[in-house]
UniProtKB/TrEMBL annotation:
Keywords: Iron. This is FeoA family protein. GO terms for molecular function: transition metal ion binding. Pfam families: FeoA. It comes from Fibrisoma limi BUZ 3. Residues 4-75 form the Ferrous iron transporter FeoA-like domain. The keyword Nuclease does not apply. The keyword Iron applies.
Amino acid sequence: MSKRSVADLKIGERAIIRSFNDQLMSLKLLEMGCLPGAEVCIHCKAPLGDPICLNVSGYCLSMRRSEAATILIDN
């Protein structure tokens, strides 16, 4: 079974951040409030699906789909 990432979520779908699969990117994401155990919700996506806007830690965060793919989730 493959692990799901934030990039797999649909608009309005919620999940819990569990871990990261890219060590360098994880430091950047942690600084932006993407902490393990935090709930994340996709707010909107650009017309072609990249970038995406998500709600995490009480604010909206915009990121590339490739960055979101490094955030592993449970839902």
